[in-house]
Task: inverse folding
C-alpha cells in the first residue's frame, strides 16, 4: 500500500499570509512605480480627484488606473475622499516630484523597468556569481548609466533619497575638525561633502568623479554657496586619485565593486595619501547577528546589480589589511551607516 500524499488533517492547506505578502512584493513596487511615473501625487496637490479625472490628466485607462489607486489606498499612500475621489496621505505626498526627499526618484530607479529586469535575474547571480544587471542589460551597470544620462540622473537623485538621512548623521557622528582638505572620492553630486563643509566652516573640499557627475556637483555646490570652498576634479578612481587631501572620504563606493576592483581603488587611494592621513568609508556594516538590518537587503541588491557586497566589521578589517591600511575604528551614526576609519600602514 503506497503512502498517502495528503497532508495531515491538522495541517494548514493555505499558504502563510506572510509568505504571500513577501512573494507579491513586486506587485506593490510596480504599482508604486506607476503612480510615480504618472505623477499622481502631483496631480492631487490641488485637491481630491476621481480616477476618471486623473486618467484624462495622465492619458491612461480610468478603470485600470482606479484599480491601481485602490490598491495603493489600501497601503496608505492615498485616501478615499468620498464620491469616488482620491487624495494623498502624508506618505503619498512624499512622492511628489518637488519633495526634497527624492522618494519619487528612488521609486523610479528601484522599481523601474531596468532594475526590474536586473533584480529579476537574482537566480542567475546565485547560480553563477555574476551580476543580474549585466545578464539582463548586456553590459555592467555603470557603463550602462554612462550611456543613458536620463536614467543616470534619476539614479543620482535616488541616491539622495535612499541615503537622505546619512549626511547629517555622518557630519554629527564624526569629528572632522582636524581635517583641512577632505577629498570625496566618487562623491557624486556632493551631497555628503556639502553637509560636512557646512558643519566645518574652515574645511575645504574636493569632489573627484567622472566628468558628467563632477559638473552636476559644481552646480549643486553653487546653489548652496559652497563652490568657492571646493575643487571639482574629473577622473577615474580605477586609474588614479588626486593627492593633497588630509582625509579621503568614500561613501557607498567600495560596496559597488568586486574584491579585486575594491582593492584597486584602495591601492590608488593609499598611493595618493603617501603614507599619511585618514581613510573614511561610509558604508552599512553588516551586523553578525541574525536580526534584520538594511545592509542585508542592500547586500543582495549589490550582488545582483553591481557585483559588489556589504561587509561585516571583520571583513572590512581584512580588506583594509590587504590594501595596506589598518582599520582604526568603526564609528556608528544615527542612520544605518557607519564610518569605517583607517590609516595607511607604514
Result:
Amino acid at each position: 500500500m503506497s503512502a498517502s500524499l495528503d497532508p495531515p488533517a491538522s495541517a494548514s492547506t493555505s499558504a502563510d499570509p506572510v509568505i504571500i505578502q513577501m512573494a507579491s512584493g513586486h506587485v506593490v513596487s510596480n504599482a508604486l512605480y506607476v503612480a510615480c511615473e504618472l505623477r499622481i501625487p502631483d496631480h492631487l496637490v490641488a485637491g481630491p480627484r476621481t480616477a476618471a479625472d486623473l486618467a484624462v490628466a495622465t492619458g491612461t485607462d480610468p478603470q485600470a488606473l482606479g484599480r491601481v489607486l485602490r490598491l495603493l489606498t489600501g497601503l496608505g499612500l492615498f485616501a478615499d475622499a468620498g464620491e469616488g475621489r482620491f487624495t494623498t496621505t502624508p506618505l503619498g505626498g512624499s512622492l511628489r516630484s518637488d519633495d526634497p526627499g527624492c522618494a519619487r526618484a528612488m521609486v523610479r530607479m528601484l522599481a523601474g523597468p531596468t532594475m526590474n529586469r536586473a533584480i529579476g535575474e537574482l537566480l542567475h547571480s546565485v547560480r553563477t556569481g555574476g551580476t543580474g544587471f549585466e545578464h539582463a542589460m548586456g553590459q555592467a551597470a555603470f557603463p550602462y548609466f554612462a550611456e543613458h544620462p536620463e536614467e543616470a540622473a534619476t539614479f543620482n537623485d535616488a541616491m539622495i533619497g535612499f541615503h537622505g538621512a546619512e549626511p547629517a548623521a555622518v557630519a554629527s557622528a564624526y569629528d572632522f575638525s582636524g581635517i583641512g582638505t577632505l577629498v570625496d572620492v566618487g562623491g557624486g553630486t556632493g551631497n555628503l561633502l556639502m553637509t560636512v563643509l557646512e558643519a566645518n566652516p574652515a574645511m575645504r573640499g574636493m569632489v573627484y568623479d567622472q566628468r558628467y557627475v563632477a559638473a552636476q556637483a559644481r552646480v549643486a555646490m553653487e546653489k548652496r554657496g559652497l563652490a568657492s570652498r571646493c575643487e571639482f576634479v574629473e577622473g577615474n578612481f580605477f586609474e588614479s586619485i588626486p593627492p593633497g587631501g588630509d582625509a579621503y572620504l568614500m561613501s557607498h563606493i567600495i560596496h559597488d565593486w568586486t574584491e579585486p576592483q575594491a582593492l584597486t581603488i584602495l591601492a590608488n587611494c593609499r598611493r595618493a595619501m603617501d603614507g599619511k592621513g585618514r581613510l573614511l568609508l561610509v558604508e552599512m556594516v553588516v551586523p553578525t547577528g541574525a536580526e534584520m538590518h538594511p545592509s542585508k537587503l542592500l547586500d543582495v541588491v549589490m550582488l545582483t546589480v553591481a557585483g559588489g557586497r556589504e561587509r561585516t566589521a571583520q571583513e572590512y578589517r581584512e580588506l583594509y589589511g590587504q590594501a595596506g591600511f589598518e582599520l582604526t575604528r568603526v564609528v556608528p551614526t544615527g542612520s544605518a551607516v557607519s564610518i569605517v576609519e583607517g590609516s595607511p600602514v607604514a
Notes: The beta strands are 49-50, 78-82, 85-88, 181-185, 204-209, 230-234, 247-251, 278-283, 325-332, 338-344.
